[in-house]
């Protein structure tokens, strides 16, 4: 089994973290996003979306981080994707929430337009308006996450046991560490992130992320909590 990935990719990180935490036998194949390898014909033949990650299991190829997490959890019978119908539905719900409601504004509205030239808006006026909209909407979703999805009485997204929803969610929200987002106003979110950072593989899997954080430490950003 092979995972096409890049270590700083927000969508590769959840899969790599699940693999590392469970010692799964999955080979990693680097796709260099910074040189544009993902846009070349050779990789486009593997994933026409020209995105990472891609999981290759024999002749079967699977895209989309959420789908890959579910596939691996089922294939290796991991307890982080419960078999109980309602518990599994809750995990799926949380994963869909992160992929749609939250990440639309937090990732593509607030963070990516500041980090990647191809996401930057065509004029300063449009860029400023995009960031303001993305920040306001992301703050609203963070309040929902803090008060309702996590709340004060549970350790993880779906209760007191870690699930694949936590792997996906925490790797998407810690994109904000690059732009120096401060989540302290959301105490339950901060507590959940701290729980996930206790995973034995967290530092190793996220080494590239923190390298980028350090590289951009002096760049000004519009950020949550700033």
Helix content: 40-55%
Q: Low-confidence runs (pLDDT<50, min 5 residues)? A: none
* Beta-strand residue percentage: 5-15%
Biggest sheet, in brief? 4 strands, mixed
**What is the count of distinct domains?**
2
Strand order of the largest sheet: 2-1-3-4
Structural class: alpha+beta
What's the CATH first level of the largest domain? Mainly Alpha
Please tell me the CATH architecture of the largest domain by its name: Up-down Bundle
End-to-end separation: 43 Å
Number of E strands: 4
Written as H for each helix and E for each strand, in order along the chain, the element string is: EHEHEEHHHHHHH
CATH topology of the largest domain: Glutathione S-transferase Yfyf (Class Pi), Chain A, domain 2
Number of helices: 9
Sum up the overall morphology in one term.
Answer: globular
Radius of gyration: 17 Å
Mean pLDDT: 97
Textual characterization of the structure:
By secondary structure, the chain is of the alpha+beta class. It has two domains: 2-75, 3-Layer(aba) Sandwich (Glutaredoxin), CATH 3.40.30; 85-215, Glutathione S-transferase Yfyf (Class Pi), Chain A, domain 2 (Up-down Bundle). It contains nine helices and four strands, in the order E-H-E-H-E-E-H-H-H-H-H-H-H. The protein has helices spanning 12-21, 41-44, 65-75, 85-115, 124-150, 164-173, 187-196, 202-205, 207-215; strands at 2-5, 27-30, 54-57, 60-63. Strands 2-1-3-4 form a four-stranded mixed sheet, covered by helices on one side. Strand 3 and strand 4 form a beta hairpin. Helix 1 crosses helix 6 (164-173). The longest helix has 31 residues, at 85-115.
